Amino acid sequence: MSDSEKGGTPRHRLRVVGGDGGGTRLRLALADGAGRVLARRTGPPGLVEPGREGAAAARVAAELTALAAETGAPLPVDALCVGLAGVGRPERARRVQEALVAARVAHRVQVVTDAAVALRDAFGAGPGILLIAGTGSVALARDVHGGVRRTGGWGALLGDEGSGYGLGLGGLRAALRGWEGRGPGTSLSAELVRALGVTTPADFLPWTEGAGKGEVAALAPLVIRSAQEGDRVARELVEAALAALVAHVEALSRPPASGDPLQGAVQGSAGPNGELRLPIALAGGLLSPGGPLRDAILALLTTRGFPVREGPVDAARGGVELALASLSN
Is 108 exposed, middle or buried (CB count within 10 Å of its CB: 0-12, 13-18, 19+)? Predict the structure, then answer.
C-alpha cells in the first residue's frame, strides 16, 4: 500500500480498526497505516444471534465510537474488519455489514468470522491449522494455495464439541443425572448449585432458560477444576472434550474428500499414515496461553506429531491486517 492510497491520505495518518467478537467479549484494536496498534478496547459479547444482526452491529458501532472518543481518532475510520462468531452464513455477515455501513463508523467495512481474523494473525496468508476453543469451537486449515477448510463451528445445537459451552452444558446435565440417580454421583451437583446460587439441581432449568451461551460456557472452568480434583464424571467430560478437539485437527490433516490433500506447507511434516502435519496455532479462552485446557491439548497434539506454535493469537490484530489489506484492493 503506497503512502498516497485511500484518497491521498498519507500512510501514517490512516486509521483502521480490527475486531474479534465471540460469546464472551468483543475486542477492538485501533491501528495506523503501518499496522501498529495504537489502542484497544474490550466490550460486551460480540456473538451474532439469529435475527439480531442489527443489535450485534450496534454493539460494534458503539464500542468503536467509544474507542475513537478515548483516543481522539476521527470517525469514520478508514477501514474496519471485524470477525464475529455467528456469521458463518453469508447472509448474516451481509446484514451485519450493511448495518455497520449505515452507522458510518468506517469508510470500508468487512465482516468475517471470528475464526478468519484469528487465522490471519496466526499464519498471515500462509498455511496452517488454527484450533479455537472458547465459548464455541471450530478449526480452520489454509493450504499453500490459499484454500481454506473448516471443521466444527456448527453452533450450540449441532456442534461446539470441546468448547466452554459444551463443557458447561455437559456439567449441568451430568449433575442432574447424578442428583436423580440416573447416572453416577458427582461433585458437580453440589458445585454447580453453589456456583449458580440456587437451592437444588432442579433449579438448573429456570437458570438455563434465562442464561446466554457465554454464561453456560463460564461454567467450564468449574468442570475442569472438578476433573483435576479427581471427580470421575468431570474427568470423563474433559477427556471427551479434548478428544473432540483433537478430532477437529485430525480431520483437517487428512485429504479433503473431493481432491488434493493439504500439502507442501511451510514447516509441515508427514504423519505415520501420510497425512500432513501442518503447523498448528491454538486460540480461545480454553486453549490460549494460561487457558485451562492448553497444556492437555498441547500434550495430545505433540504426541500425534503435530508441530504446535507457541505464543498467543491476537485475533483483533488479524482484523487490523485484513482491514489494511482491504485498502489495497
Answer: middle
